[in-house]
Amino acid sequence: MSAKRTSPQPETARAVAFQALRRIEQQGAFANLVLDGVLTRSQLDEQDRRFATQLVYGTTRMRRACDHLVDRFVVRSVDDQIRTLLRLGAYQLHYLSTPDHAAVSETVELAPRKARGFVNAVLRKVASQSAVAWPNAATEHSYPDWIVELLSADIGAETAQAALEHMNREPSVHERSDGYIQDPASQWVCDIVGAQAGDTILDCCAAPGGKATLLAASGATVVASDRRFSRARLVARNVVRTGADGVSVVVADATALPLRPATFDRVLVDAPCSGLGVLRRRADARWRIDADGIGRLSRLQKEILGASTNQVAVGGTLVYSVCTVTTAETIEIAATVGDDFEPIDIDLGTGRWRRHGDHGVMVLPQDHDTDAMSAFAWKRIR
Ligand SMILES: C[S@@+](CC[C@H](N)C(=O)[O-])C[C@H]1O[C@@H](n2cnc3c(N)ncnc32)[C@H](O)[C@@H]1O
């Protein structure tokens, strides 16, 4: 009779974090999905689950900085597994208040026996030399060079660095009165749309439905469309969950909307974007997004905004928003709106927004501890 097979489960928060990090770093798995899986299968208590989460997200965000902390003392190449462990150890030593001896000894425990002496020696050196000469801002704040360079060129080096530094912090959580979790900056975009009871509004990139459900709360009728069925279904679920009234969910490509032209009082184009303004919510996103993707996205954004303009009734309002501040995805897209539309100077709202381009606005994470967001608005004049 064969013995019942049970796969060995990691017991400690560090072991669970290590297992998750291996899959994120070596297999390119999504951090949130991997973490969900390993936590579900683990026996950790609530406190240890929080610690494992902090270790996974923190080590993932600070990957490049941790490599620098370690590489000061490593002269030979190390295999992927040991690299992950050294990052995990360096993260605890440099960024958390974990006592050094616990961070070192419990991380060393996770190493294969033959590598323990090496991991121990390196982590002890990291612990003993906390003063770090960072070679550049991208290493210190742990971002790919291209992100630091692009944002510095677009919004200024100092401002970009403050934004990037802020996005290494844990995001705050804001719950609306209907239970939906939504960043304030997204809610402020809805204020710009300015929904009124009785309006007919099109939200043509609507999933998962945060803005559509908030717009409907004003008493407006909202057509919430998204390109993929699976995404539209998320909107439908959130409509039910929040109890929003007056939202119709549609599957439609916003570059070719199957709707009668010039019929909406307000159209919101909350376009797909690089997401550089929400990096604090997605620990691994900075290593995934590629610089070339911005060019592809900006072409799609132009196409979506161009097609959506046809849906705005004369006298109606068009709003374009993205959770990024790169010039290519904001000012350059806004400049393509034709002369049937007159720009609206969005009110800066007593320090809520900064001016972005001639008439648009943006908010940066360091301003009010929100996501970064940009928005532009127009009135259709003919
Ligand atoms: C920034 S998200 C929208 C967030 C949403 N407005 C909210 O507040 O919850 C962008 C959305 O655009 C959708 N999208 C991408 N390409 C599209 C297209 N060609 N037509 C319509 N939707 C598209 C994506 O599926 C994604 O759900």
Write up what this structure looks like.
By secondary structure, the protein is an alpha/beta fold. It contains 17 helices and nine strands. Helix 12 links the parallel strand 1 and strand 2 (221-226). Helix 1 (13-27) packs antiparallel against helix 2 (31-41), helix 9 (145-155) packs across helix 10 and helix 11 crosses helix 12 (210-216). The protein is elongated. S-adenosylmethionine is lined by residues 186, 204-211, 226-228, 231, 253-255, 270, 272, 304.
What is shown here, in short?
This protein has helices at residues 13-27, 31-41, 46-61, 63-71, 80-95, 100-108, 116-128, 137-141, 145-155, 157-166, 184-193, 210-216, 229-242, 285-288, 291-309, 331-334, 365-368, and strands spanning 200-203, 221-226, 247-251, 264-270, 312-322, 341-344, 354-356, 360-363, 373-380. It is α/β, with parallel strands linked by helices and 382 residues long.
Q: Would you identify the regions where 5 or more consecutive residues have pLDDT less than 50?
A: 1-5
Number of strands: 9
The CATH architecture of the largest domain can be named as 3-Layer(aba) Sandwich
The main pleated sheet reads as: 9 strands, mixed
Q: Can you tell me the CATH topology of the largest domain?
A: Rossmann fold
Helix-residue proportion: 40-55%
Structural class: alpha/beta
Shape summary: elongated
* H/I helix tally: 17
H and E string: HHHHHHHHHHHEHEHEEHHEHEEEHE
Please, how many domains? 2
| Distance between the ends | 82 Å
Top CATH class of the largest domain: Alpha Beta
Specify Rg, calculated over alpha carbons.
Answer: 24 Å
Ions, cofactors and other ligands present here are: S-adenosylmethionine
Oligomer: single chain
Mean pLDDT: 95
Beta percentage is 5-15%
